Structure formats: structure tokens, C-alpha cells
Amino acid sequence: MKFPKEYRYIGKATPRKDAVEIVTGKATYIEDLELPRMLHGKVLRSPYPHALIKKIDTSKAEKSRGVRAVLTYKNVPEWKTGTPRHVRVLDRKVRFVGDAVALVAADTEEMAMDALADVEVEYEQLPAVYDVEEAIKPDAPQLYDEFPGNLMPLDAPVFGPQTLSAVVLGDVEKGFAESDFISQGTFSYENIPNPLPLEPPGVIAQWEGSNRLTVWSATQSASWHRYMMLSKMGFPDIRTIGTQCGGSYGSKNYSAQPLFYAAALARVTGRPVKVCFSKEEHFGAFVLRLASRIRGKVGLKKDGTVTAISGEWLVNTGAFSDQAQAQVAVGLGEAQLMLRCSNWDLRAKLVCTNRNASGIVRGFGGQELESALLPILMQAMAAGDIDPVEFFKNNYVKPGDGYYWRDGKWWVSKGKDYSEAIESGAQAFGWTEKWKGWLKPSAVKHTKRIGVGVAVHGNADVGEDVSEAYVRLNPDATVTIHACVAEPGMGQRSSLCKMAAETLRISLDRVSITPPDSLINPFDFGLVGSRGTYAVGSAVISAAEDAKQQLLKMAAPVLKTTPDDLDSEDGMVFIKDKPDTAIPWRAIIGLMHTCTGVGRFEPDYSMPNFLVLFAEVEVDTETGKLDLLKVVTATDVGQIIDPPSLEGQLYGSLGAAGIDTAIFEESVLDTNSGHILNMNLIDYKWRSFAELPRFDNKILETPIETHRFRAVGVGEVSTSPGPAAVLMAASNAVGRRLDGYPLTPDRILKALGKINGDRIK
Amino acid sequence: MADRNEQNKDSIILTVNDVAHEFEIGDHFYQAKPHDTLAKTLRETLGLMGTKVGCDRGACGSCTVLMDGMPVLSCMTLTVECNAKQITTIEGLQDPATGKLDAIQQAFIDHTAFQCGFCTPGIIMASKALLDRNPSPTEEQIKDALSGHYCRCISHYHVVEAILSAAEKR
Fold first, then answer.
1. Which end of chain A has less neighbouring CB within 10 Å, N or C?
2. Do A372 and A457 fall into the same domain?
3. Nearest Cβ partner of B150 from A16, A198, A692?
4. Whether A491 and B112 lie within 8 Å, measured CB to CB
5. Same structural domain for residues A630 and A595?
6. Could you read off the pLDDT of B138-161 as tens digits, one per residue?
7. Which one, of A351, A215, A379, A250, lies nearest residue A293 by Cα?
8. What are the start-end ranges of the H helices in A230-302?
């Protein structure tokens, strides 16, 4: 098959469609949106991690200036979120510090805040539990009557009746018997970091009558506030409209709690209500990354073949989660992409505890699982003196290999062999020169020791879920894409315009996309995982092709030929052999008509994407400080759509609870009080401009057959390999196996025997 | 649109993007309150929504505006402190007559030096202040000037490129 070498837009940097709005401050985010008669909603929050509300008196708050409504567990609608549905809008029991106790709607935000102070609450405190293994002991405090032992059901059919909750395959005993090295242990990735987009979550809700709800929100996936919330809210007719979204990284796919609060207050007041969380609420009452712990065992042969993997994967959701079962399913699938192995017995347990809830974060289960699993693998690789680069080349899923995906079905990879991408990354990084063997530094200068590490991650989600699109050709030679796609930062709305412009051979400035609004657009699952390029893109491309075919069919009789002999460029349809015989779209479509094509993408889980990340770190053995010196990522995307947008996704490995969860990022939970101690942007550490490592991306473009422009997406996965790569690099630097994320100076100094202090538990 | 000479005793004059506004100070709904932040006044009273409030505690840099040409955190600045000050916001960078973008804004477009864009107005204002006092900064000086700006998407590398290219073109 031959591909055109020269595209007009695909593969070239083009300005984002919303660029002028963004750089002039005109882009409208949720906080910038005001509706007529709009009220502001605020939430009273629990100071205790686990308590019963004995008494709640709102009479004083109701009389407070500007207050229009006060709601408590006694008078909120009977909506429920969580999986399975069990989390009420407000409950008589609070289950984490920051859990919602009462809601106030008032004329201004300040008035609502003032009224919160007037709500009088008496609590009966209950014992709380935070540790995943403590929580499943028989005498542990119980969060929910319906979930004894604090065990959340894993049989919720989030991806159908066989939703993956364990990988059981082959015979692990036989596999271990065949191995040359066995490594086992318990390892954790439990620093519950926060994806922490700059913009906190926010929602505006407005009812028309009792059954029509319109929701404006900062969202990554515009359709979710309709399709995910319908069943949670008793099936009202929900219209959802996405505003410009100030970052999400998974977390703002939807915002069930802010939506519940705004919708409940809007219903009782009959007015639109805005609920935008403060930064403190964003830290303490929105969503964190799942916590992950593995009691596991891995067998390897001398040549690096993985013979068996077994263990128990303990996943701590905090007080609740909507998507933990889905993350467990995808994470277990991703582990199989990372490790080709014939014998598995890896089973998950999902446990709730008394801290802030977990939600969606880039890495979606896989980062959590692999960051805890890799330390076990590293031990085995070290025992066999196996070069990790060679190990990943041999063990990442290859075309023809099978895996159980999230739906519990067996899929066979039709993707590519990513060894070449690993090799190109290794060369760019200088792996061969820097790798001195396990627990050996690449260089030592006085107290400073340099080490290198590497890890991989991939997801078979580029073709997940359904996308639909319409492409409308207008007689003035403009093109309108109807697709329910938000703009949380990936530039995907602009990239879809590029794909349509390229397909229709028309100038990019003549192509636009409708606002992300569920009323005016067909269904799209959203910018979830890395599906934007392949799944959403394919729907838009096929809609554009459909529209073009209709256009050529209409033009054929006018030009006295067949549609096959025609093509269109820049708003003119012409005969291929006689390009001078051309007529404008308006002469074909008619001035008061439009020509609309329809496209749909159906799910396909046979195309894993991939990212390898190399990290070089320097550890000061006197101070324990770990500096990230250099990062190289490598992947193969088939065809780059927009270079800077893709680079942005890969650089994103430094943000959104990614690589820095191995260095300094964590929510510090005080298990005496249940409070998170660092709920602000000073105490919660983040990477600044002053601490940027050298960063290089090696992006191969080996065409794939199944996308019109031969492309697969890769955006979501960039945060995931980083933590394990850093753990490996730091261990090699100091010559000792380091354990525990993040590797803060105290952890490193303790491992080096320089201090003996324990972390506050 | 007040004349500075006729300024009321209990009022302040705030000049934003070359337009002077007089505010009475007090607790009535139509007055600027003593505890109102500059960010709140800009956004809620003057409707200049381009200034973004990320943390509201002076830690993320997103609310950065210029006061007499120097970057300040508008969430940590009280409006009453701004009497007789010249404030420039992101809305004030475009040429008002021609609509032409500032060279920094254009460079941010050309380099796609943003992803979600929420930190962009603050970063552009800080960059503007930097280039006004140091027309050819080094990469290190740019990183230093922006070290208080939180960008979670990680557009840092593109931002540095954009500012270097804007500096060259100015």
C-alpha cells in the first residue's frame, strides 16, 4: 500500500483553532461563565474522617443574607453515584475529612460561605481506617453496611458481564518450576497523588421543568455528564455543554459530586447554580489517584523470558470511586501488554478506606499496577543480570500475541513490534554508555551519584468505545464537523479539523467544529485514554468521506460523468482527467442546502500503543536529594498529526501525577486525624520551570493500515512508565534497592542508613 | 472614567489597560470592599475574565497582572492598595486600534506554547514584564522569571522556545 508522502496539514504544526482566544484571555472557562439569575453553591465539609451526624440545624443558615436554599442529607434528591451505586448526594454518615455535610445556594459566593458557618452540626465520631490491609481485617471500622469487610464488588459489569478483575492463564506452578530466578515481595504505589489540573472542577446546572437538566462544565469528555449521570440521577434528560477546560488528565472526565450539588441546589431554587470547587476542595474533596499494593511473585528465565506472575493486587479507593473497577480491568490488561507471559494468576481486591475518593487519572489502573509490580521485576532482572532494555524489547506484546482486555475477552495484537522504538530511544539516551549493570551508578562525583533507569507502558485503548460524527459541507465551501469533543488541552478539536481538511482537500481555515454540546452532536465517548486520534478521528474521517461521496454523486450528472471520475479540492469539484472542468460546491449543493456525511467508529482493542521512558537521575548521598537530569521518551505513532500537540502530550509525563510521584509528589495523609496535610500549591510539590530536565522525544512513524492517515494515539500513557524508571535509576545511582514512592530525601537517607527515622504513620 | 484631580477621599482610582476607574471603598454591594482582591475586582467588577485564578493563595502564578510594569499576583493584592497604579491585564496586550497581537502572544500561537491554556495569561504577563526589562534574556533567565508559574500540562519547553523567539523578533 502506498501513502502520500506530502500532506497539506497532517504532520505539520498548525496553530490551534482556539489559539487566539487562549492567548488573549477570551477563552471561556467554567469560572468565567455567568448565567442570568445564577446562584452560587458552597459545601459544608466534615472535619472528621468517619462520623455520624447526630444533629444538624440549618435554621440560622437559612436566614443568612442572600441565602436561597440549604440542603442536608434529610432533603437532598435520592441520586447515587459510585460503583455499584451507593454514594448519596449527602449522607447521614461522613466517610472522609472533607466529605459533604450540607449545601448552600446564595446570591454570591461570599454569602454562601458566610451561611456555611451558621450550619450547626453535632457529630458522633467513629474509628477510621486508612491502610488497605487493615481495612479488610475482621474488626476494622466498616464504611458501608452493604459492603462488609470494606470490600467493593469487582463483578460490576462496567465493561460487560466478563469485566476483567483477575488475569488467570496457564499454570503458574509449572511456570515457577521452569524459571531460573524467582522474585517476590510486597511493593506499594500509595502516595495518592493528585492529578491537580490548574483549574479546579466546576459545574453550572439549570433545570427546565422537573426533567430537563442542562449542565455546563469543565470537562474532558463532554458527553459524560449525560451518559454517565443519567442512571445515577433517575434518567432526567441531561444536556451537557463543555466549556474550555483548564486541564483534566482524566480527573475531569466528569465531576459527579459538583454536578450533584449544583443540580440539587438548582432544582430546589429553580435557578441556575454554579458550584466551582476551591483549590483546597480540589485537593481534599475531589479525586486522587488509586493506591496500589502488590503481594507478588515473578519467575524469569536466564534469557529474560517471564515464566510466571502471581499475586494479589490490593487497590485502595479511599471513601469511594466511580471508576475503580474499570481501572482494575484496564490495569490488568495493560500488565499483560507490558509482560508477555504464559502463566498468570494475578487477582485484584478493591477496598474502601476513610480518605478522599479516588478517580480517573492518566495511567488509569496500569500506572498504579505497574509502578508496584516493577520493583518485583527489577529484583528478578537484577538476579539474572538482565539488561532492562533488552528485557522490555523481548517482553512487550508483539503482533500475534494475545491478552485478556478489559471486557474479559481474548484479543490478539494487530499492532506493531515496538522494539525499534525502544532501540531508537536507547540510542538517543545513550543507554549503552550509561548502563553499568544493576545497582551500579553511571558516574560518581563526590557525594553525587548518577544512575539510569527505564520502563515501558502501553494501552490497547486507541480504538476503545464508540464515536459518531457528522461532517456538513456548506455551499460557501466551508465545512462543519459535528462531534461532541471538548478541549482540555490536547488540541484534539483542532486535529480533527486537520483530518477533515485533509480528507476533503480544503483549506484548514474553512473547517470548524461545533461546540461540545450533547444536544447538537451525535454520540462521542470522549477524549478518554488515547482514543482521540484513532477512534474519534476515524469517525470524523469517515463522515468527511461520506459527505464527499454524496457531493461527487450529486456533481456527476452536472458534469456528465461518474462520481469515480470526480474529485474535490478547495471547494471545487473537478473531473480528474480534465482538472479545468470544475464547478463550485454551491452549484452542486445549492445555496439553501447542505450536504451531510455520517461517520461511526466501533470499538477495536487489537491495537496497543506504547511508550518507553528513560530517566537519568542524580542523588546526593549527603542530603538525600534526587534530581531528574534527563528524560527520553520513544514511541511509534504511525503518523504524527500535529507535532507540538504530540510533544506536549509526551512532556506531560512530568505533570499530572506522573514521573514526579517517584520524586516528590504525594498527598500527605495524617492517619491520626485523617487530614491531608499539604492541601495547597506550596506544600504539595510540583515541578517548576527552574527544575526542568533535558527532555527528548523520539517518535517513529511506521504506518498502520487501519487509519486513513496511518496514525495511533499515544497521549494518555506518557505519565505511566516514569515512576518505575526513576525508582530503577535512583537504585542504580546509590547502589541499593530503593523502595517506596516518592523517593523523598528522608526515604533515601534512611535506605542509605544515614538516618533511622520512620515516616509518620 | 474619572479625573484623578476630582478623586473622592474614600475612593481609589484604578487604571486598567489605560482606562481609569474610580471605586468607592466600603461594604455596600456597589462599593469595592477593603478585602477585595485585585483579581476579584478585575474579574467580577470589571468583567476582565482573562485573568485566571488557579489557587487564590499566591502559589500558582495564574493570576499575574502587571502593576506599573512589574508582575504582581492579583489574588494576593488588595484592590485598595492599587490607587493610582497602572494595571495591565492580558486583555490590554493587543493593540487597541489595530487588534494586532503582542509579539509574545503571537509567539505563543506559533509555538503552540500552551495546552489547556489556563496558566497562559499569567505566563504571558510575566513574560511581557521580563522582556520589557530584559529584551534578550537567556534560557535560564526565562526559567527563573517563570519559576512561580504552575503549568500542569507541561508546556514549559514550548513556552521557553516561544519567549526566546519573541525576544529575537522584538
1. N
2. yes
3. A198
4. yes
5. no
6. 999 999 999 999 999 999 999 999
7. A351
8. 256-269, 279-285
